[in-house]
Amino acid sequence: MKYGILLALLTLIGCGSQPHTPALTPVKIDAIELNRYWLMQPAPLSFSVDTEALKSNYAYVNLRLVIDPAGQVVTASIEEISDEQWTPAAMQIIEQLSYVPAPTNRKTIAVEVVTEFKLSL
Q1: What is the C-alpha to C-alpha distance for residues 113 and 80, in angstroms, rounded to an integer?
Q2: pLDDT digits (tens, 9 = 90+) for 7-63
């Protein structure tokens, strides 16, 4: 009888616990595949920089992004930038990025991608 009560108690405790959900591992894709998964939300991206400190009116930046199933950039890093003076602007742009699922991404698959942006005045 004692074991029956203990088993029932353990079963009830187990039923009340949260189910284990594995961490979502993003699919690594090439930049040319990004539009098959996610489309950048059409919104003007803005940044402020000290224009006198810039060496040029533009810079290219390669960003490594992890986009979660909700279309939010959850991890971002600068892989390469053509002009280091543009780094603060690139960081400001990262904070504004948001994506919507492409028509072919009905399951909203998380992705990791390195993609290029051109920043200009």
Answers
A1: 14
A2: 333 333 444 444 433 447 899 999 999 999 999 998 888 888 888 888 889 999 999
- DSSP codes of every residue in 24-38: PPPEE--GGGHHHHE
8 Å CB contact between 76 and 63: yes
pTM recorded for the entire structure: 0.75
Residues 49 and 41 sit within 8 Å (Cβ to Cβ): no
| 65-104: b (≥16 Cβ within 10 Å) or e | bbbbeebebeebeeeebebeebeebbeebbeebebebeee
Nearest CA to 54 out of 27, 89, 8, 28 is that of 89
CA quadruple 73, 74, 78, 79: dihedral positive or negative? negative
Q: Is residue 47 within 8 Å of 93, Cβ to Cβ?
A: yes
